[in-house]
Amino acid sequence: MTTSTIVRPNVVSRAEWLAARRQLLAREKELTKARDELSRQRRELPWVKVEKPYFFDGPNGKETLADLFGGRCQLLIKHFMFGPGWKEGCVGCSFEVDHIGGALAHLQNHDVTYVAVSRAPLQEIEAFQQRMGWSFKWVSSFGSDFNYDYHVSFNQDDLARGKVYYNFEMCDIEMEELSGRSVFYKDEAGDVFHTYSAYGRGTEELLSTYVVLDLMPKGRNETGPNYNLTDWVRHHDRYGAGGFVDATGRHRAPGTSDSCCHAAEKHS
Fold first, then answer.
1. Which one, of 137, 81, 130, lies nearest residue 107 by Cα?
2. Quick one: which H or E segment has residue 159?
């Protein structure tokens, strides 16, 4: 359990609290309207037709990007950090997809298909997915350029140069896998278009746990050493088991020699 010392604001009368709350409500309404406008602008982004063929290994065998739509016209892909040989996925990505299970039926009945994609071989994906109890579709892009083309995986040449292209800019990152989400649309002719991608903190809106924590007196309570979710989030079957999450988002068991003091990447 995460603990901290809370800095308590002034304690006031109910009338004074109500006046302060109404002032904050006005700011909250401004933010709501600004978010609605931003969402409108997001939907008006131009599209890019996906000409390159991509193939994935999934529960139904080899599938194309068009196949992943599953009979719907909108596809949300979670770029899940899970590289070949890892045996288990990134803690932060696992935290994110923990939130999706209850939404799947609603999304599917509103013309949206949700699929996770990782470079780990399908056998490793399926073993971890079974352990975690997730029901969403998850496919492997191993042997495909998909992860590289959508800038969430990086080869050794990329890493050797010291900078990689992530979140729409060149970044100092030494990690072979990173996370994100991408949105695609398939028209009546079967053509597929890339409409949107988000990386780094741009994917936080899917984390309803953070929405709740932001309402709490302690807030997110991420007090170090990394000042992000790696300070406290674990695979949901590992809370209380000790260890730590390293700078690559991978869990390290108790007694692991790697230091937990390396600052995890935090991209705004």
1. 137
2. helix 156-160
